[in-house]
Design goal:
Number of strands: 0
Largest sheet: none
Order of helices and strands: HHHHHH
Strand content: under 5%
Shape: globular
Radius of gyration: 16 Å
Helix content: 55-70%
Structural class: mainly alpha
């Protein structure tokens, strides 16, 4: 079964939902905001930089694909997934950001789509198995303790929200598009 590909059309997160529904609603909203900021851009636009930063919209797509897989596959399930498992992180600590310039828009979007689909499947299974208080299989690198599914969801919302602010500025520098 092929997962549904997200589109940039956003809807408000639910105003009346349980905790899991609220968190999932906000994560979906921020995922779609990233799509809105990268939608329809060609390779040159996705590689456009706004000095002094080296950040690009293509780099944001690849970075957030990596973040999805890091938290929902590596930390939550304690499994590795490509291309992250074989990337030479010692040679380039920012590999996902830097290598995005070599990827086509279609490759970047397919990578992000696949990462989000894995995350959605993992989340659905985890929520069905016991809810937000469950703990990750892998321990957090900083504290040495597992994290809850709730913590991962809140962290993912924070990660997208922060990077969507970057995406706002980068997209405006590309073609003047502002707002939502």
């Amino acid at each position: 079964m092929t997962p549904e590909r997200l589109t940039p059309e956003r809807t408000e997160p639910p105003h009346r939902a349980d905790e899991a529904g609220t968190l999932l609603g906000f994560l979906d909203y921020h995922r779609r905001t990233l799509l809105l900021k990268t939608d329809g851009l060609d390779a040159e636009a996705l590689r456009h930089r706004l000095p002094p930063t080296t950040m690009t919209l293509g780099g944001l797509l690849k970075h957030l694909a990596m973040v999805e897989d890091n938290w929902f596959t590596e930390v939550w399930l304690d499994e590795r997934v490509e291309p992250w498992a074989s990337a030479d992180w010692k040679a380039d600590r920012d590999w996902e950001w830097n290598s995005a310039a070599e990827d086509t828009p279609e490759e970047l979007r397919a990578l992000w789509d696949a990462s989000v689909a894995r995350s959605q499947q993992t989340l659905a299974a985890a929520l069905a198995a016991g809810g937000l208080d469950q703990e990750s299989r892998r321990r957090h690198y900083g504290t040495g303790e597992p994290v809850t599914l709730r913590w991962i969801l809140v962290h993912m919302i924070e990660e997208y929200a922060r990077h969507n602010g970057h995406a706002d500025l980068l997209r405006e520098a590309v073609d003047g598009a502002t707002g939502e």
